[in-house]
Amino acid sequence: MFKRLHELHVPVTFDFEGETVTADDGESLAEALLAHGVRHVRNAVVSGQPRAPYCMIGVCFECLVEIDGRPNRQACMTPVRAGMKVRRQRGAADVGAGGEG
Ligand code: FES
Fold first, then answer.
1. How confident is residue 75, by pLDDT bands cut at 50, 70 and 90?
2. Among 59, 79, 95, 96, which is most buried by a count of CB atoms within 10 Å?
3. Distance of CA 51 from the midpoint of ligand 1 (Å)
4. Could you give the 3-state DSSP secondary structure of residue 87?
5. Closest approach atom of ligand 1 to CA 59
């Protein structure tokens, strides 16, 4: 069970799979999802098994999600902002899809 060690300072909401999540503006998306009780943020490419954020420092890539239609975003390295739309990443995403720019 994950729990924030502080109260929300500047609450904002965003969408995760159609559900409204309240988080602190600027906290990491992975932190916000874990604090909300989300344990499944993507599916493994080969087995399809559910995966969750692990390292929280941008190393393991277990936290890949789709943000505003752009796949392969690391939730642990992405600050929450109001209104963002986040979806689970299911399997491998097209590397060229939704790239930078
Ligand atoms: S949790 Fe490991 S890279 Fe995000």
1. very high
2. 79
3. 11
4. strand
5. 3
